[in-house]
Design brief:
The protein is an alpha/beta fold. It contains 31 helices and 19 strands. A hairpin with a 2-residue loop joins strand 18 and strand 19.
Length: about 850
């Protein structure tokens, strides 16, 4: 025990121990993908190894960050009847024994209806220097050292990590972050002008190596060894947005087998900043406050116990009851499966869609066209992890889930173009891009911007008017800018094996066959092929939307699924591939044809590609399919109109389409808001059920899964990605300040990497408030994902036992797992440690 009398402001730390604590603190930070391929990320990724409840307690204690809704939210649900007595009873029965819980359901209900109790603020056991200084300032925002420090670090990070937005580049960008920052601070007098005396001299006294710098700071400040990891994590939370981007750089490099210490460098910058604030204050008030903070830190408990915080336990029980109520309703929906008309001997159309929840609505309406239509659900990259290189580029984007690295390189080409035409198109695109870049530089430069507006601004009146009315795009589509319309219409992925710039691109004959087999088996599509099979990727159309790629396909790494769908269809039409598949037990009939397509989730239009390559015998079938798609698109838009606050009248369809071109529209679509369940089973289990656009649907037939390899793939990839999406929406809903991106209207793009809310502050993470709230109510319900898998229990157990990432998700209650029995009914609920509970007993 350390008391105030004996506590000193100097502590010895061994470098290996500090390095270990740095690693653990950095691993708690979730990555943030940049805007060019923004994907959903689980904000609690670094806590997967501990339970959901323990993480709630830790965040509540360490950072005063809540991970559940305010109690009034749950109280309102009780009063509306959404949470019933039986749901409260379920939550109470499942509560751990060491929780302080109400004795009866009635007491719990009364506590929720009464609303939030007046609770004393939970003192953070590990306070940073900036936090202590802010507490001494009495909450004066103008005197906040945390805010000033965050602004200064954020401003520097925006300049250092800039990816092309700034016209003037930061000197020293070739150095590693901490070294570049030290070099910048030699000349930066901003801190000293704001009252931090001798800031530059203080920085110069800190070691040049980032880890040595961290060791020096924690020793000089007297951070207790017991609290070291928590202190480092608290420091990272002050710059959580930029820390998350640095973690992305580390993640991306590690995927390719490269080491990266960017986050450690950023942590060193943050700690040195804190130390500079620390040495400013030698007054008794600060010294005593700091001693007390370190005394509390040294007494920090070794684990997260909730038993002594009865009010916090009630909040967690309220959330458990809220989720139990939803599960009760969902299980009833799945059990009340309506009768579906018998399917014909052979379907005319099989349309494969991404498992994305937005596909559920479209699939339902497309299937209503008649029994000749079947739909399938599969990850939107269709099993082709490709790097897609646009014309004029040397490198491309990774069109696969961020858990994977591209296995193949595919170059964009102009179909039917000669070598001379290819060269002409390439040179013209590069020229137009150079001219466009020069024109943009002229418009935004410090001097010419004023001249430009005064002399040429009036000539843009017509363009501004047409953009404002949604008749034209505010900017060119970045995927096709610099290309003529004729060339755009002929763009296609080049799949034939060749060497481009010393790189192997396309697919060899053997690679085509192997990958085609893997895709079809992964889709459980190995027999009963329809006459026409549509591989339907998805993307989104919006303007003036920094988070636009977040509405594209997450399975395609924040890109549209067009390239993957077209690659899959082209390869599966290859006669040589089909011969190879027959030898492997998959016989695709000669009168089956595959087509690539793209579902625009903002407008619900389906674009079909490469129709002209289909044999003439398919023309009538394609015409029929187009009619079905048109009807499904119209019905889907009408259903979505209500969610967007659009009246279901004759103008609904027009207004939905207009949102995709409206530069003032903060809600062009709802994305994946509302997601709450994942079903891996044959479509027959859910066909005819209205799942309200809230379910990820993955077709899976365990009877055709020899060795359960597909089951293993589903649980380790699509389920994990779906849980990332679910928990990002969850975090952005329960605490948008901590886990979301704030008000979209106030966003400013910085460095083309991310957004600030306003003109300063930390980089924002997660989703904007407008993505989860319509201005009056929450559109997304904060629910952990409910996963339903139709497979034998021992097969599911084998995957859980084999993969730590899956075990962490299910054992630590980051999602809820259910099993579907052979009769198609939900039969068991997973508890933990490979223990299942039969339902209905």
């Amino acid at each position: 025990m350390i008391d105030n009398a004996t506590l000193t402001l100097s502590t010895t730390h061994e470098r290996p121990e500090v390095e270990a604590a740095i690693g653990r603190a950095c691993s708690r930070v979730a990555p943030l993908w940049p805007l060019k391929h923004f994907v959903a990320v689980n904000p609690f990724l670094g806590f997967a190894g501990q339970t959901f409840h323990a993480t709630c307690a830790m965040m509540h204690r360490v950072a005063r960050i809540d991970m559940v809704m305010p109690r009034d939210f749950y109280g309102d649900a009780v009063r509306r009847g959404e949470i019933e007595e039986r749901d409260l009873a379920t939550a109470l029965a499942a509560a751990p024994r060491d929780w302080q819980t109400p004795a009866t359901v009635g007491e719990l209900r009364a506590a929720l209806e009464r609303g939030a109790a007046v609770k004393a603020k939970h003192a953070a056991h590990v306070a940073t220097v900036a936090e202590v200084l802010d507490s001494l300032a009495g909450g004066d925002r103008n005197a906040s050292r945390t805010a000033f420090m965050t602004d200064e670090i954020s401003r520097w990070c925006a300049a250092y990590f800039d990816e092309g937005q700034s016209a003037w580049r930061l000197p020293g960008r070739g150095l590693r972050p901490y070294h570049a920052w030290r070099a910048s601070m030699r000349h930066d007098r901003n801190a000293e002008m704001m009252g931090i005396a001798g800031f530059r001299a203080i920085v110069a006294t800190i070691p040049e190596d980032p880890i040595d710098a961290i060791v020096a700071v924690v020793e000089r400040q007297g951070i207790p060894p017991r609290a070291l990891e928590e202190y480092l994590y608290q420091a990272l939370l002050d710059i959580g947005g930029w820390a998350s981007y640095a973690r992305y750089l580390v993640w991306d490099n590690e995927l390719y087998g490269r080491s990266d210490d960017t986050l450690v460098h950023l942590l060193a910058i943050r700690l040195v900043w804190g130390y500079a604030l620390f040495v400013q204050r030698t007054d008794l008030a600060f010294v005593e406050a700091w001693r007390h903070a370190m005394h509390e830190a040294a007494r920090m408990p070794l684990d997260e116990r909730l038993g002594n915080d009865a009010e916090f336990c009630i909040d967690l029980l309220a959330h458990e009851a809220y989720e139990a109520a939803y599960q009760r309703r969902l299980l009833a929906t799945l059990a009340a499966k309506p009768a579906v008309a018998g399917a014909p001997a052979r379907a005319t159309l099989q349309a494969a869609f991404c498992i994305d929840v937005r596909s559920e609505i479209y699939r339902r309406h497309l299937e209503s066209a008649g029994p000749q239509v079947e739909t399938l659900g599969f990850a939107g990259f269709f099993g082709y992890p490709i790097e897609y290189v646009p014309i004029g580029h040397v490198r491309g984007g990774a069109q696969c889930p961020v858990l994977l690295t591209p296995k193949f390189t595919v170059c964009e080409t102009v179909g039917g173009a000669t070598d001379a035409e290819d060269t002409e198109i390439l040179n013209l695109r590069q020229l137009r891009r150079r001219v466009g870049k020069a024109w943009k530089s002229f418009k935004v430069s410090a001097v010419s911007s004023f001249i430009f507006v005064e002399t040429a601004g009036i000539t843009f009146a017509a363009k501004i008017l047409s953009d404002a009315l949604g008749l034209t795009r505010t900017v060119n589509d970045p995927n096709t800018d610099g290309l003529d319309r004729a060339a755009i219409a002929r763009l296609e992925p080049g799949i034939e094996a060749r060497t481009v710039g010393g790189r192997h691109t396309g697919f060899t004959p053997e690679e085509k066959i192997v990958q085609a087999e893997a895709v079809l088996r992964g889709m459980s599509l190995t027999k009963s092929f329809a006459r026409l099979v549509l591989m339907t990727g998805h993307g989104s159309t919006t303007v003036n939307n920094p988070h636009a790629t977040g509405l594209d396909c997450g399975a395609c790494g924040g890109h549209t699924g067009e390239a993957n769908a077209r690659v899959a269809a082209t390869i599966l039409n290859d006669p040589d591939v089909r011969r190879g598949l027959r030898e492997r037990g998959i016989d695709i009939p000669d009168d089956t044809w595959f087509l690539g397509a793209l579902h625009d989730t903002t407008t619900d239009r389906i674009t079909i590609y490469d129709e002209d390559e289909a044999p003439p015998a398919f023309r009538d079938t394609i015409a029929q399919v187009r009619a079905w798609l048109a009807a499904a698109s119209a019905a889907t838009r009408v259903e979505r109109a209500a969610r967007l606050g659009i009246a279901r009248d004759s103008g609904a369809e027009r207004r939905v389409l207009a949102r995709s071109r409206d530069w003032a529209q903060v809600r062009p679509e709802w994305g994946l808001a509302g997601n709450a369940s994942f079903v891996a089973a044959p479509r027959s289990r859910t066909r005819g059920i209205d799942l309200d656009g809230r379910a990820f649907l993955h077709d899976y037939d365990w009877r055709a899964d020899d060795g359960f390899n597909v089951l293993e793939l589903i649980l380790t990839a699509p389920v994990v990605v779906a849980s990332w999406i679910n928990l990002q929406y969850y975090g952005s809903t329960v605490n948008n300040r901590a886990f979301g991106a704030g008000n979209k209207v106030l966003h400013n793009v910085t460095g083309t990497i991310g957004v600030l809310e306003g003109n300063a502050g930390d980089l924002k993470v997660g989703l904007p408030w407008q993505s989860v709230h319509d201005g009056k109510r929450f559109v997304h319900e904060p629910l952990r994902l409910n996963v339903f898998v139709e497979a034998p229990l021992d097969a599911i157990d084998a995957v859980i036992a084999k993969h730590e990432a899956v075990a962490n998700l299910v054992n630590n209650r980051w999602l809820h797992l259910f099993a579907i029995g052979e009769n198609g009914e939900v039969s068991h609920r997973y508890r933990r440690d490979l223990v299942w509970e039969p339902l209905g007993t």
